[in-house]
Amino acid sequence: MTERLLVLARHGQSDWNLKNLFTGWKDPDLTELGVSEAKAAGDRLKAKGLSFDRCYTSGLARAQRTAQLILGQLGQPDLPTVRDIALNERDYGELSGLNKDDARAKWGEDQVHVWRRSYDVPPPGGESLKDTAARVLPYYIREILPAVMRGERVLVAAHGNSLRALIMVLDGLTTDTIAGLELATGVPLVYRLNADTTVASKEVLAA
After folding, report:
1. What's the pTM?
2. Which structural domain, as residue segments, surrounds residue 95?
3. CA-CA distance, 167 to 173, in Å (whole number)?
4. Which of 3, 38, 103, 192 is the most buried (most CB within 10 A)?
């Protein structure tokens, strides 16, 4: 029987997460806590007896390092890993690098909330979640899903919004319900897919 295993993991805490900054396509590294979160994610996957045939990650260091740390804990440091900007975090445009409280002071709490949580309203010069989905989903369908359907066990280490775009489709969420979805750093989501590519089961490997 084909396993059709897909595991999604948001990167561990980054330096800019800690500083409450909009990050987007900026490229800070993980904090010490972020490193610990990534290693713990690998340990929880190992405890489930999981291993992988292929890994996908973004073009950003925090996701790449998270993937490396997870695979290291699994004893698979040399696993083939594909890096692609299609899996990057959404681009926050003019908000990138700003403290979230400073942004609220400048534009107002309601406006910043709309930029952060609406489906199709982008921040100035940046991407909405809809824009992010427009690059994540074709990449998933073209590159990741065929590997899963061939029976390869796939790990995707990426970002809060690129993964939210994917989870929206996997979990059948609406543009309204996706707004309330928060992904914790370093917590793997274990999906098993049916032969028709729908989700057979989902498990959240929280601490």
Report:
1. 0.96
2. 5-204
3. 8
4. 38
